[in-house]
User: Fold this.
Amino acid sequence: MVLLSHMQTFPAIETEEEALTNSMPAAAVRRGGGTSFFRNDGEKLYKYGEELTRSRKSTLVKEKTTLGHIDMILGDYLNHVLKEGREIKVKNRLRKLYTNNGAQWSHVVFEHPASFQTLAMDPVKKQEIIDDLTTFSKGEDFYNRIGRAWKRGYLLYGPPGTGKSTMIAAMANFLGYDIYDLELTAVKDNTELRRLLIETSSKSIIVIEDIDCSMELTGQRKKDNKEDEDDNDPAKKPMKPPENDAKASKVTLSGLLNFVDGLWSACGGDRLIVFTTNHVEKLDPALIRRGRMDRHIELSYCGFEAFKVLARNYLYLETHELFETIRGLLEETQMTPADVAENLMPKTSPADPEGCLKSLIGALETAKQEAAAQKKSEEEEGRKKEKDSEMEALNPIENGNV
Ligand SMILES: Nc1ncnc2c1ncn2[C@@H]1O[C@H](COP(=O)(O)OP(=O)(O)OP(=O)(O)O)[C@@H](O)[C@H]1O
Assistant:
C-alpha cells in the first residue's frame, strides 16, 4: 500500500508504450480503472514483477538508465523516506502518560513542558545524555546487527528535588516517546507485571520511580532475613507493599529482572526503562548492573552551571554582578536545583531579577550557617560518645560491665 502510493509520484502516463519508452526508471500507467507499474533498468523491462518479452523490449527501450538508480529509489531511499516519515509522525503525535491501576493501564495526554534546554545540570553531562539518547533512538539497525533487543536502561539517582522526574519528562519530549509510569506496589504478582509490560507500545519510556521504596532489596534486609532459603534469596523477595495494604504485592526481583532482561526482546520496538532512586546504595547490585541499567546518572546539588540555566529560564539573566557571590556560596553549601528555582521564581510583577538573586543569596547563607551548626553539633555528639566509652572502659564495675 505504502509502496503504491510512493510509486504514484513517478510520472503517470496514458499508455504502456509511453511508460516503456520513457527514460524514467519507473512509471505508472493508469488504464481501465487500474494502475500498472513499469520498471526500466536499462537492460530489461519489467511490468512490475513480470519480465516483458524480448521483442517488445528491443522495440520499446529507447534510452538506457542505470540499474543503480532504480535500486536506490526502490530500496535504500524508499526505506529511508518511510523511516523518516515514521519518525516525524512519532514526533508530531500527542504523547501519552500511562499509569497503572493494578493490572490496567489508563492514560492522559502528556503535556509536560520540560526540555533539556530548561534542565539545570552540568552542560557536558547533559550533552552526553542527549547524544546517548539520539544514538539509541536511531539504533535499530545496530541493535539488529548485534542481536540485542532495542532497549536501554537508565538509573537516575540523587537527593529529592534534583530533577530526576524533570529529566524523564525532558527525555520523553526530546525523543517524542510515551511514558508508562509503573507503580510496582499496585501490581499483584509477576504474571500481572508481565501482562502490563507486554502491553506497552514501542517508542516509550517505562518508568519505575523510587525503586528502593517499591522493593525489599536492601543489603540490610537481606542480612536480617535468615529464616529460610527463599528469604535469603533477594530475587524471590516480594515488592514492598503500600503501608497498611492487606493485598501485598507478590512481584519479585527475579520477576522484574526477567522482564528487564528477556521479555522486551519479544515485544519488538525501542523502549527505555528508567529507574529513579534517592538511595542508590540500597539497591541490589543485580538490578542495576550494566546491561540492565546501562547508564547511571547522578543528579546532584545545584552547581554554578546549573544555576546559570535556572537564572536564564526564570529571570532572563545571562550574567549579573551578584553571580560571583552566588558561585562562591554554591561551592560552600548544598542546595537542590528545586530550592534554587524556588528562590529565583519571580514574586512580583514586573519581575525583580536582582531581588530574586538577593533572596537566593540569603537562602544560601542561611543553608550554610545551618550546615555549619549541624556539623558542630555532630562533632560534639561524637566527642561525647567517645568520652562515655572511655569512662565505661575505666570503670567497668561501676558501670555494671563485670
Ligand atoms: N535540574 C533541574 N532543572 C530544572 N528544574 C529543576 C531541576 N531539579 C529540580 N527542578 C525543579 O524542582 C521541581 C522538583 O524536581 P523533580 O520532581 O524533578 O525532582 P526529583 O529529583 O524527581 O525529586 P524526588 O526525588 O522528590 O521525586 C521541578 O518541578 C523543577 O521545577
